[in-house]
Amino acid sequence: MPKYLYQGEMGRISARTSAGPVVLPKGEEVEVTDKQHEALVGHAVFKALEDSSDLVITGVKKAKASGKGAGKGETDADASDQNTTGGDTASDQNTSGDADK
Q: What is the pTM of this model?
C-alpha cells in the first residue's frame, strides 16, 4: 500500500476522496489504501505538492498491463530504432546518375 509523507509548511493537509478521507500530518508517514491513492493521483493540489517535493509518495505498485496483447507494444526506443538500417530511403535511391534522363 502506498505511503505518503508530507513535509511542507502547514501542520497537515487533508482531502476527502470517494474512498474516504485522507489526513497527512507534517513529518509523519501515512499509509493510504490503493483506492485513496488512485483518488489522489488526479488531484491538482497533491500533484503540485509532489512535484515540489513537499509530498513524498512511496510503495506504489506499478499498474499491470491488461487486455489482449498487453505488453507487446512498441516502446519509444523501439520506434526510433526503425528505418535506421539503410535500404529504401530517398537518399539511397537513384544513385546511378540515370535519374535525370
A: 0.59
